[in-house]
């Protein structure tokens, strides 16, 4: 019996004989794997696949374009599809997710634990006397070589809860900061869309007229060189004409390139694939008078600007950091309770419940109270100084933006008048042309100058609209209402249009683009010389009216422009007189003007239509006033 028990004890002590070989084999495999990792560059197929996926994802799920695009449509597409704005939306969502994680940290801890223990021999021990050192007990064990453990412990730490609470409050303000940064990105995108939209619209209006004129200038250059080589023109005169034509072509190309790039910028802002056909709605939009209540705008800017709101949240985050540091100085209270299980058969109780409470405090940390107080005071002073500096910058931006809008509006007025003068010069030059080479060259030069002036007018108008947007941006005007009901492009466009109109009315006495009563122009050509095409005259007058942002669409409220031509003589010189009358919708005569000019020796459709254009241009300002165009703007408040 004793021999049997001794054999079992010896067998139990031997343990598992394979543990050492298995451990050695695993060590060899791990060491061998450490030297097998080498750099592997991506293949061209992998790069191409990634590029194709990205390009497909960039434009996935976008609504197709339908009809001409308005400014609010462009803003809606930028809001819905712009990649930079999508990124900010994702960052805001990430901040909200981090807030959820921070809130979970405030919950008590419930730790579940399970395990398996094994050893190759028996644990145990003996007891010896303290005084004599004699063994009083034989060697014994109370633990099996193999047994399973499991437990579930509930614990709550007061200090951890306080730290987690303040961190969660800080993360909540981080969400607010992400929201303000999203607002700022959106406001900047709106500003860029507004700028690109109006420049692209100016290009759309004028580029169709530019190419035929460029071809005519190129042909005129060839004729001038031929005339110079044939001796028809003196070399100096021929070169001067070539220089003038090349200067006109250079100016034309510069203006055309500046305006053409705007459409590419707009397609990028609204995330359309490059090369997508884009037609903008050509609706004349008057400029609003510059705001005069600067104090009100400054107050609005200090309340609405995302940068200042972000500073407010940063200050609150710092205040929570101060509270967190102070809370860390207090004693810590820890409560715990748990269920335990051990499969060890030598235990009297394999299941038990335990619990306890503990209080602890780091007394040396109390020595850091002066340093914490000094750091918190310095942090608060820094926050105040940074906010004050930013507030001063915001106030400066409001005043600068307002002054820039005044100057840009005045520049547009000058550019508009210059364009009308150059159009009249081109018309008069074309009317007096006698089909000679020098006359044709002078006519082309004036036409090129006229187109360049109209490009400058469109560019000045776009600059004025951009300055208008900068005023709104400096105040912190939001694009969207507080609640968005639908997210399709058409619904977003309507909500944006309504929201902007309401918001802009709080900044400008009359918002740009506000609906006013408009009166289209109806043309009626009366008497013309024999052999002159009345239809050609009407088309020329119509082009002048449309070029100056007046509408020709028929309407019951149309103004009727009646024009008739007469010839006369003064001091032996033939003169042509265009009599113009404007009749309103009620039949009342609201304007009467006469335009007199010298007549060429040969009266033709070309000369009469050119004089009709010059006559129409002479009353363009009156027509704009009668048709509901904006009042004259000045550079002074």
From TrEMBL:
Q: Tell me its family.
A: Belongs to the outer membrane factor (OMF) (TC 1.B.17) family.
The protein's location, in the record's own words, is: Cell outer membrane
Specify whether Cell cycle is a keyword of the entry: no
Q: Which GO terms describe its molecular function?
A: efflux transmembrane transporter activity; porin activity
Which keywords annotate this record? Cell outer membrane, Membrane, Transmembrane, Transmembrane beta strand, Transport
Q: Report what the protein is called.
A: TolC family protein
The keyword Transport belongs to this UniProt entry's keyword annotation: yes
Q: Where does the UniProt entry say this protein principally localizes?
A: membrane
One GO cellular component assignment for this chain's record is: cell outer membrane
- List the Gene3D superfamilies hit by this protein, alphabetically: Outer membrane efflux proteins (OEP)
Q: Which PANTHER family match?
A: OUTER MEMBRANE PROTEIN TOLC
The organism sits in which domain of life?
Bacteria
Listed InterPro entries: OMP_efflux, TolC-like
Upper classification of the source organism reads: Bacteria, Pseudomonadati, Pseudomonadota, Gammaproteobacteria, Enterobacterales
């Amino acid at each position: 019996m004793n021999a049997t028990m001794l054999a079992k004890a010896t067998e139990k002590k031997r343990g598992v004989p394979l543990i050492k070989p298995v451990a050695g084999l695993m060590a060899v495999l791990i060491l061998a794997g450490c030297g097998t990792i080498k750099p592997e560059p991506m293949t061209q197929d992998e790069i191409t696949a990634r590029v194709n996926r990205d390009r497909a994802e960039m434009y996935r799920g976008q609504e197709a374009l339908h009809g001409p695009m308005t400014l609010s449509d462009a803003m809606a597409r930028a809001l819905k599809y712009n990649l930079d704005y999508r990124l900010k939306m994702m960052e805001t969502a990430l901040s909200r997710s981090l807030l959820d994680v921070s809130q979970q940290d405030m919950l008590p801890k419930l730790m579940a634990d399970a395990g398996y223990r094994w050893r190759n021999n028996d644990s145990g021990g003996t007891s010896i006397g303290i005084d004599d050192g004699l063994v009083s007990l034989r060697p014994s064990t109370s633990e099996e070589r193999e047994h399973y453990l499991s437990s579930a412990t509930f614990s709550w730490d007061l200090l951890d809860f306080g730290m987690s609470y303040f961190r969660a409050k800080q993360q909540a303000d981080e969400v607010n900061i992400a929201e303000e940064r999203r607002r700022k990105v959106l406001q900047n995108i709106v500003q860029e869309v507004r700028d690109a939209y109006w420049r692209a619209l100016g290009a759309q209006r004028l580029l169709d007229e530019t190419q035929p004129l460029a071809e005519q200038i190129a042909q005129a250059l060839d004729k001038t060189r031929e005339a110079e080589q044939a001796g028809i023109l003196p070399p100096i005169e021929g070169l001067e004409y070539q220089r003038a034509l090349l200067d006109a072509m250079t100016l034309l190309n510069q203006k055309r390139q500046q305006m053409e790039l705007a459409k590419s910028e707009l397609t990028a802002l609204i995330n359309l694939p490059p090369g997508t056909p884009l037609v903008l709605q050509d609706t004349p939009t008057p400029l609003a008078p510059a705001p005069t209540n600067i104090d009100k705008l400054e107050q609005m800017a200090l309340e609405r600007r995302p940068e200042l709101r972000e500073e407010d949240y940063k200050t609150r985050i710092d205040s929570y950091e101060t509270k967190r540091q102070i809370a860390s100085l207090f004693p810590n209270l820890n409560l715990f309770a748990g269920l335990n299980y051990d499969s060890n058969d030598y235990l009297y109780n394999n299941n038990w419940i335990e619990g306890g409470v503990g209080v602890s405090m780091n007394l040396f940390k109390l020595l850091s109270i002066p340093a914490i107080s000094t750091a918190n005071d310095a942090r608060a002073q820094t926050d105040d100084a940074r906010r004050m500096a930013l507030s001063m910058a915001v106030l400066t931006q409001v005043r600068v933006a307002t002054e820039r809008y005044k100057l840009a509006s005045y520049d547009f007025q000058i550019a508009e008048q210059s364009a009308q003068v150059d159009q009249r010069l081109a018309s008069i030059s074309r009317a007096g042309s006698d089909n000679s080479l020098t006359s044709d060259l002078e006519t082309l030069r004036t036409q090129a100058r006229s187109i360049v002036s109209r490009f400058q007018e469109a560019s000045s108008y776009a600059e004025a609209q951009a300055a208008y947007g900068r005023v709104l941006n400096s105040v912190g005007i939001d694009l969207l209402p507080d609640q968005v009901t639908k997210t399709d492009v058409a619904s977003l466009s309507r909500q944006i249009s309504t929201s902007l109109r309401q918001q802009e009315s709080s900044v400008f006495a009359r918002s740009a683009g506000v609906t006013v009563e408009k009166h289209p122009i109806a043309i009626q050509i009366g008497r013309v010389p024999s052999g002159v095409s009345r239809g050609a005259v009407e088309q020329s007058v119509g082009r002048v009216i449309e070029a100056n942002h007046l509408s020709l669409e028929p309407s019951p409220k149309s103004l009727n422009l009646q024009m008739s031509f007469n010839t006369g003589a003064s001091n032996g010189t033939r003169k042509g007189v265009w009599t113009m009358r404007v009749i309103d919708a009620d039949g009342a005569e609201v304007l009467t003007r006469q335009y007199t000019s010298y007549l060429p020796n040969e009266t033709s459709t070309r000369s009469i239509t050119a004089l009709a254009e010059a006559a129409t241009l002479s009353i363009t300002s009156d027509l704009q006033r009668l048709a509901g165009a904006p009042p004259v703007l000045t550079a002074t408040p």
